[in-house]
Specification:
Blueprint lengths: L5 H25 L3 H17 L10 H8 L3 H12 L3 H18 L8 H7 L5 H12 L3 H12 L1
Helix pairs in contact: 2-4, 3-4, 5-6, 5-7, 5-8
Length: 152
């Protein structure tokens, strides 16, 4: 009979999880040829960034996959491997980048922050504030006020 201290068992389990995650990523990456992955990556950037599909609050990985003529599994693999994040984080990064530009732009000074969040594709105020704060390190209001102070 083996006796494990709680700490050692947790460390062993954590190492195993990390190994499984690494192996899973390698397996996922090996499912596609590099040329196919690069092509899908460029097409994703075109659809999301150039066509600004991220502005649609109902834009999903499923819709993106349909536009690409592929499945969500491949979309997920490419975003994870090539951009190092999941689909939601990837899309929200574009949304927050545009929101920052609008919050800093004097032409949008009179527009409510909630309206800006809708313009850039967020479905609700809570997800906008949570994503913005996580990515930028301050709330949208704090960011807007700091930009106004810099321009004064």
């Amino acid at each position: 009979m083996y006796r494990f201290s709680g700490h050692n068992l947790n460390v062993t389990m954590e190492k195993k999880k990390m190994t499984q995650k690494k192996e899973g990523k390698v397996r996922s990456k090996n499912l596609m040829k590099p040329q196919v992955m690069e092509e899908i990556k460029q097409r994703i950037l075109d659809i999301v960034s150039t066509q600004k599909k991220y502005r649609d609050h109902s834009f999903s990985a499923q819709k993106l996959a349909e536009m690409l003529g592929t499945n969500t599994r491949y979309v997920s693999i490419v975003i994870n491997v090539e951009f190092g994040q999941n689909y939601t984080s990837f899309i929200n990064k574009f949304r927050i980048t545009e929101a920052k530009k609008r919050l800093a732009d004097p032409r949008y000074r009179q527009i409510k922050i909630e309206d800006i969040s809708k313009m850039v594709g967020f479905a609700n105020r809570q997800s906008f504030y949570a994503s913005f704060t996580r990515i930028v390190g301050m709330t949208p209001r704090e960011y807007k006020m700091s930009c106004l102070k810099k321009k004064s």
